[in-house]
Design goal:
It is built from 9 helices and 7 strands, in the order H-E-H-E-H-E-E-H-E-H-H-E-H-H-H-E. By secondary structure, it is of the alpha/beta class. The protein has 2 domains: about 180 residues, Rossmann fold (3-Layer(aba) Sandwich); about 60 residues, no CATH class. Helix 2 links the parallel strand 1 and strand 2. Helix 4 packs across helix 6. It is globular, with a radius of gyration of 20 Å.
């Protein structure tokens, strides 16, 4: 797993020309793992931005104790990223990356314009996102895509065609669009098998009591935790079906600001 992680991120780094970049922006950085990896493998100043206090609290552990002096994390709404004029946004970025996060943004076309505004001309953006096939049927939407979006807490999934239009509208010229769906199919199978295994395991009374005690300690009711576990099982079924039927796509889009 670690070797696959290293190999994938090395491809991302090469795509954005990260080794030659002076400044790299990690959009919706979450817990900061990718930002930290970029800081470790380049001499660039790496800036991770995210709106979530909780995510940023976790992300800042990567820089605790003065580690990674070329890395910083900033709380910022991606939808207003282009409006920032204070450091570290005064100087344009040479590259940006948005990994597995764009599907959660409320307006992806606006977000792309905001990201493009922070790139220098010729700066590169790599966006990797979960999408849907271009023309799903009404029944496919009802049975798979819409319930999957509800469980993922997103409004909808973009299409390759929709992204082409949004990138163009943002002044971003697409160099390469790759469909990685087949490569990630094993992930859905592993999730499905894990869900089946969990379903087959008998839950003992002492396990339920520990779960309830832990839930109360962390301010969450046991019923909420159990419901979350049930939801994850539904997600495993829906995602596997959507992926294997070709409805759920995983796209990598490399573009350059014109």
């Amino acid at each position: 797993m670690a070797a696959a992680y290293q190999q994938t991120h090395q491809r991302y780094l090469e795509a954005i020309r990260g080794t030659a970049a002076r400044r790299i922006l990690d959009v919706a950085c979450g817990g900061g793992a990718l930002s930290a990896w970029l800081a470790d493998h380049t001499t660039a100043e790496v800036v991770g931005v995210d709106l979530s206090d909780r995510q940023l609290a976790h992300a800042r552990r990567w820089v605790a104790g003065g580690r990674r002096p070329n890395l910083r994390f900033v709380q910022q709404d991606v939808m207003r990223l282009g409006e920032r004029t204070a450091p570290p946004f005064q100087t344009p970025f040479d590259a940006a990356i948005c990994l597995d996060a764009a599907c959660y943004l409320p307006d992806r076309r606006t977000a792309l314009r905001q990201i493009a505004a922070r790139l220098r001309p010729g700066g590169r953006l790599l966006l990797v996102d979960w999408c849907q096939t271009n023309r799903p049927t009404a029944l496919q939407r009802e049975l798979l895509l819409e319930p999957l979006c509800r469980y993922w807490a997103i409004a909808d999934l973009e299409t390759a065609t929709g992204y082409r239009r949004s990138f163009a509208a943002a002044g971003l010229r697409i160099h390469q669009l790759d469909d990685l769906s087949e490569q990630v199919l094993p992930n859905w199978e592993r999730g499905y098998q894990a869900a089946l295994h969990a379903l087959a395991e008998p839950v003992r009374l002492d396990q339920l009591l520990r779960l309830a005690a832990s839930s109360v300690k962390h301010g969450t009711s046991g019923s909420v935790v159990l419901q979350a576990a049930k939801d994850q099982f539904q997600v495993a079924l829906l995602a596997k079906a959507a992926a294997e039927s070709g409805l759920l796509r995983y796209l990598s889009i490399l573009a350059e600001r014109t």
